[in-house]
């Protein structure tokens, strides 16, 4: 019955090979899933970065506008104070 043992050994090797192949396929599927998740996260980070950059630009614009308005108000206050002093000095 050496043929039976040889056949049994061949079947065992085939089972091991199939098991190894299944493990390799499972690992590959898991890596692809993780890669997809990573790519999704990278897309979200880029979208957040773009949104934050836009918000920063808007905030800088508002800050610059407020600074301009502040200078104008200051200029007007100085003019008003000078006018009041001139009236009081008469």
TrEMBL record:
InterPro entries: DUF4164
Domain of life: Bacteria
Residue runs in coiled coils: 4-76
Alphabetical keyword list: Coiled coil
Protein name: Chromosome segregation ATPase
Organism: Rhizobium aethiopicum
